[in-house]
């Protein structure tokens, strides 16, 4: 975790105090289950709940001696609760506590991430509607293609983040399992009903079969989804960065009156926030591969995944939380320049209407190949001579024979390219 990119609410989820509290909640729930099925004496769970106190420093002190975090935790709790402590962790293994806790922390983090996505969706929807009919040029390969609207651009991102919300919700379901199955997952030393009790208590599902650990394909899927969300963040950030280029200047990140853009060049207003998001997205995606590699562990368990998850659990969720919140703020406050969009659209002197002309020629009897050749020749002529595409076409004898000047001019109508925007909007915002 890097403090610079950590927000308080999600950071607390990964602090040791919260982790140990979850461990205690798991142990108390297990004790309650054991009481219910007459495995341990009645009243043990209540006594533990009443007397247990989380002492992080004490746990660390004990761990330095025993070199085992769960044993250190249990020893610390037992010192607080007295004789009743001997009934803690009966038939359980460390993985029962660690894995169930890890899943709970991911679920807690995901609630914040989901809220972030909902906020982004709200902003994107408002902006999409606001700029629904704001004409701009669509680009393919970075080259002017055909007209679109800025609203449609944003609508594409809105739909993508809708998918991300669904992906995250499904990924949370994947990791919403609990394992209280004991050594190598056989329930030899603990009643399987205890697991079901704990799962219900903690709003989880019993893991159908654990090998002492919860299968890591679940977590690989979860972190892969975080990677996809990060990819969406970067795609939107990259679009903003490109549109803020001096040559384009169609949008611009908010720049405060006292903000500085460059230590050397006072005139500069750099898209630093979007650039930052690009870097943060790379970091979140980098955690996907270790999560995938965690799937393959030795036999029923090893701990090679443990050090990985101690890093990627907090780092991926905290970083993504920061990135999503920053993206929301960028979108809320960015400047949009419709006049510059229109100016940029016109710099090719009408070449962006080439497809419509070609299609019209095919309707008038030309083969597609012939129509393409005629239009391409005129497009190249327009570009070389720096005349409008319309002027070049007017002078072409083959076109003159088929299309009147009035009908030719009609093919340069921007409204032609926006006539079905409502169809797309109804599909997305239904």
Task: Provide a concise account of the structure shown.
With 430 residues, the protein is mainly alpha-helical. It is built from 20 helices and six strands. A two-stranded antiparallel ribbon has the order 1-2.
Please tag this protein with its features.
430 residues; mainly alpha; Fumarase C, Chain A, domain 2; Ribonucleotide Reductase Protein R1, domain 1; 3 domains; two-stranded parallel ribbon; 6 strands; 64% helix; elongated
Structural overview:
This protein is mostly helical and 430 residues long. It is built from 20 helices and six strands. It has helices at residues 8-13, 16-36, 44-51, 56-66, 69-81, 94-130, 150-174, 192-201, 217-243, 272-286, 288-293, 304-333, 338-345, 354-363, 368-385, 389-394, 397-402, 405-410, 415-418, 421-428, and strands at 135-140, 143-149, 177-178, 205-206, 251-252, 335-336. The strands form three sheets. The protein has a two-stranded antiparallel ribbon with strand order 1-2. Helix 9 (217-243) packs antiparallel against helix 10 (272-286). The mean pLDDT is 94.
């Amino acid at each position: 975790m890097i403090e610079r990119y950590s927000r308080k609410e999600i950071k607390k989820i990964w602090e040791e105090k919260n982790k140990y509290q979850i461990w205690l909640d798991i142990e108390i729930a297990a004790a309650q289950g054991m009481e219910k099925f007459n495995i341990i004496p009645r009243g043990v769970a209540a006594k533990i709940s009443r007397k247990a106190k989380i002492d992080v420093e004490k746990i660390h002190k004990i761990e330095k001696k025993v070199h085992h975090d769960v044993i250190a935790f249990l020893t610390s709790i037992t010192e607080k609760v007295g004789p009743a402590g001997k009934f803690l962790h009966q038939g359980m293994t460390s993985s029962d506590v660690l894995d169930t806790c890890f899943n709970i922390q991911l679920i807690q983090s995901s609630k914040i991430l989901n809220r972030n996505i909902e906020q982004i969706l709200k902003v994107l929807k408002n902006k999409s509607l606001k700029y629904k009919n704001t004409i701009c040029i669509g680009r393919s390969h970075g080259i002017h293609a055909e007209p679109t609207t800025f609203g449609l651009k944003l609508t594409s991102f809105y739909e993508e983040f809708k998918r991300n919300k669904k992906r995250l919700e499904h990924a949370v379901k994947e990791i919403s399992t609990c394992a209280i199955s004991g050594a190598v997952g056989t329930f030899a030393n603990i009643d399987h009903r205890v697991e079901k009790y704990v799962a219900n208590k903690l709003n989880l599902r019993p893991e159908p079969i654990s090998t002492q650990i919860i299968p890591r394909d679940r977590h690989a899927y979860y972190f892969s989804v975080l990677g996809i969300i990060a990819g969406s963040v970067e795609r939107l950030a990259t679009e903003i960065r490109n549109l803020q280029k001096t040559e384009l200047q169609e949008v611009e990140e908010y720049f405060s009156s006292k903000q500085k853009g460059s230590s050397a060049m006072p005139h500069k207003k750099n898209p630093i926030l979007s650039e930052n998001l690009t870097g943060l997205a790379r970091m979140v995606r980098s955690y996907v591969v270790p999560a995938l590699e965690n799937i393959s562990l030795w036999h029923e368990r090893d701990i090679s995944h443990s050090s990985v998850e101690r890093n990627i659990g907090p780092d991926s969720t905290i970083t993504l939380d920061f990135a999503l919140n920053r993206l929301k703020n960028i979108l809320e406050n960015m400047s949009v320049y419709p006049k510059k969009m229109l100016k940029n659209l016109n710099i090719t002197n009408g070449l962006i209407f080439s497809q419509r002309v070609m299609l019209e020629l095919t309707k008038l009897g030309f083969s597609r190949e012939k129509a393409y050749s005629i239009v391409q020749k005129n497009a190249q002529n327009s570009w070389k001579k720096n005349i409008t595409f319309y002027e070049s076409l007017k002078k072409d004898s083959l076109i003159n024979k088929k299309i009147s000047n009035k009908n030719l001019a009609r093919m340069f109508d921007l409204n032609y390219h926006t006539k079905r925007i409502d169809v797309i909007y109804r599909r997305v915002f239904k």
